Amino acid sequence: MLNKRLNLIARTISTIFIPPVNLFAVIVYIAFLLENNIGKQTSIIVISFVFTLFAPILYFILMLKQKKIVNKDATNKEERTIPYLFGILFLSLGLLALYLIQINQILLVFFIIQIVNSFLLIAVNYFWKISAHMIGFSSPVVFLFFFSGNQVIIPISLVLLIILGWSRYYLKCHSFSQILAGVIFGFGLTLLQLFIFLGK
Question: What is the pTM of this model?
Answer without folding.
Answer: 0.92
